[in-house]
Amino acid sequence: MSRVAAVDIGTNTVRLLVASAGADGDLIEEHLRVEIVGLGHGLDATGRLSTEAMARAEAALAGFAPLIEGVNACRVVATSASRDAANRDEFFERVEAVLGTRPTLISGDEEAGYAFAGATSWLDESQVVVVDIGGGSTEFVAGRSHPEYSMSVDIGSVRLTDRLLASRPVDADVLDAAARMVADAFAAVHPPSGTVIGVAGTCTSAAALAAGLAAYDRDVVHGFRLGRRQVAAVVERLAGLSIEATAALPSLEPKRAPVILGGTVVLAGVYAHLGIEELIVSERDMLHGVALAVLSEST
Question: Rounded to two decimals, what is the model's pTM?
Answer without folding.
Answer: 0.87
